[in-house]
Write a structure and sequence with these properties.
Elements lengths: L1 H18 L2 H4 L12 E7 L20 E6 L2 H11 L5 E3 L9 E7 L2 E9 L4 E4 L10 E3 L5 E4 L2 E2 L1 H13 L5
Length: about 170
C-alpha cells in the first residue's frame, strides 16, 4: 500500500516537472466563458479604412503590428474585471472605429477571442459579445431599444487607458 502511494506521488511529480502546469493552465476561462491558455496585447497601426488584421491565419502578428506581449495572469484577471463590469460602459461611442490596440485570447495557439480597442472612438469590438456592454440602451418614444450605450464610461475608459499606459502602448 505504502509503495503504491509512493509510486503515484512519484508519477505525479515527474508529470508536473516534465509537462509543467499546463493541465491547470489550460483550464483558464475568460470572463466571456471561453477557455484560453494565453492572452497577447497588441499595438498596431490604426487605419481609417477599417481594422487591419492583427494576426494571420496561423496566429502570428501581421506587418501592421508595432509591438505585442504576452500578459501575466494578474493582468488578464485585471482586464477581465474591467471588461466584465457594466460600470465600464454606458456612454455613446463615436461613429468612427479606428482601433490601434487589441487583446487576443488563444487556446492551443489558435485565437478564440479578439477585442479591438479604440480610445479615440470610446469603443471596443469583441468577436464574442460582452454582456456588460449591453446593459444601457437608447430607447425611442415607445420604449423600444434603438442602440446600446456601449461606449466607455469615464471610469471604464480611464481604467483601460491606464492599463495600456502601463504597458507603454499609449502615452
Amino acid at each position: 500500500m505504502k509503495s503504491s502511494i509512493t509510486r503515484t506521488c512519484a508519477v505525479l511529480f515527474v508529470a508536473f516537472v516534465c509537462f509543467g502546469f499546463a493541465p491547470l493552465k489550460s483550464q483558464l476561462k475568460s470572463f466571456l466563458g471561453v477557455r484560453y491558455d494565453r492572452v497577447l496585447a497588441y499595438s498596431f497601426e490604426s487605419n481609417p479604412e477599417g481594422s487591419p488584421p492583427v494576426i494571420d491565419s496561423k496566429g502570428q502578428p501581421t506587418k501592421y503590428v508595432k509591438k505585442y506581449m504576452a500578459l501575466a495572469q494578474s493582468d488578464i484577471d485585471y482586464l477581465d474585471k474591467i471588461l466584465s463590469s457594466p460600470k465600464t460602459y454606458g456612454e455613446a461611442p463615436a461613429s468612427c472605429f479606428e482601433p490601434a490596440l487589441a487583446l487576443v485570447y488563444f487556446k492551443n495557439n489558435k485565437p478564440v477571442i479578439q477585442i479591438d480597442i479604440c480610445f479615440e472612438c470610446n469603443h471596443l469590438y469583441s468577436t464574442v459579445p460582452i454582456k456588460a456592454s449591453r446593459i444601457k440602451w437608447v430607447h425611442d418614444d415607445n420604449g423600444k431599444r434603438i442602440y446600446p450605450l456601449d461606449g466607455f464610461s469615464k471610469k471604464g475608459g480611464d481604467a483601460l487607458y491606464a492599463f495600456f499606459k502601463k504597458l507603454r502602448y499609449v502615452k
